[in-house]
Amino acid sequence: MRSLASYFASLFLALSLMGCARLVGLPLKIAFLTDAEVSELSVLDLCGGREIFPKTVEKALREKGVFSKLEMEMIMKSKIHLGMSEEALVCSWGLPDDLNVSVRERGDQREYVYHPDRYVYVEGGKVVGWKQ
Asked: pTM of the prediction?
């Protein structure tokens, strides 16, 4: 019987040969890291591995203390809420397919576009609305 680490190593090798490793490389590497190494990863890197290793990533994110309790709950459910930080949005829903920025007198407004037909509006680093 193959170990989980052996399975992930084989999967990573196969994806590398197909040119897809860049898309999933870090999330798969989390399987080989110690808790100390996982805790050193950036928030964005951790969020990239959230769906594959939810408990490991949740623990590391909580230890970093970057997100509020409500944001952590929403991130782990892949949901968003008004007032959520821009970083928490990206952690919850991933990187957008497109990002539109409007420069305004009172500050930039960002429109995160997630296909198909999901838009999230951010002002001052906080989610101020969305439509689906």
From this structure: 0.75
